[in-house]
Amino acid sequence: MNGMIPKFNIGDKVWYARNENVAERIICDCCQGKRYLMVIMGDESRVTIECTGCQSGYDPPKGYNIVYNQIQRSVETTIYRIEINENEIEYYTRAGCGVGRVFSTKREADKKAKELGEKYYKEQVDRLEKRKENEKRSWAWNATYHKQQIKKAQKDLEYHTKKLHFAKIIAKETNHAK
Questions:
Q1: 66 Cβ partners below 8 Å, 6+ apart?
Q2: Distance between CA atoms of residues 16 and 81, nearest Å
Q3: Cα–Cα–Cα angle for 85, 87, 90, nearest 5°?
Q4: Contact indicator for 26, 17 with CB cutoff of 8 Å
Q5: Distance between CA atoms of 164 and 59, rounded to whole angstroms?
Q6: Are 78 and 11 in contact (CB under 8 A)?
Q7: Which pTM value belongs to this model?
Q8: Which of 21, 19, 16 is nearest to 94 (CA)?
Q9: How confident is the model over 50-59, as pLDDT tens digits?
Q10: Domain boundaries, the chain
Q11: pLDDT in tens, 19-39
Q12: Is-contact 65 128, C-beta < 8 A?
């Protein structure tokens, strides 16, 4: 054994620092809830693009993101297993398991649950902000790509319109020659 002595024993009644997730909608800070962005191109033209800050997978932008607040719900429970590792003691209870979540009093467990909930919430908000920075394609790339596609489509439309015009003229000449 590594010399660590458990503070609690199997069968002890303890308070487990537990949290429950409650969903909260946060208005997207990129599009401000509008679900699209306005990009000003180098030639001063404006292009509307979908907001990727509040888009999830293949779903369209929602105008908000969901983060989860963790409400402290410490519960009294019983230890049924103890696992002693190299640097820590993990307690297993009917309410859950984990290192640093088991306490003698409800007050201590509530304090820890609140601390864990605040940390979890901050991590979610940080993740949302970083997601926008680490996406494979930027909004600028998206706007540039679509502007290029519009130009290409306009050229194609012009080309095919001319071809159709000449086809009509040639068809008329062919019909009159008969």
A1: 23, 24, 25, 26
A2: 14
A3: 50
A4: no
A5: 39
A6: yes
A7: 0.52
A8: 16
A9: 888 888 888 8
A10: 13-28+63-135
A11: 888 888 989 888 999 999 888
A12: yes
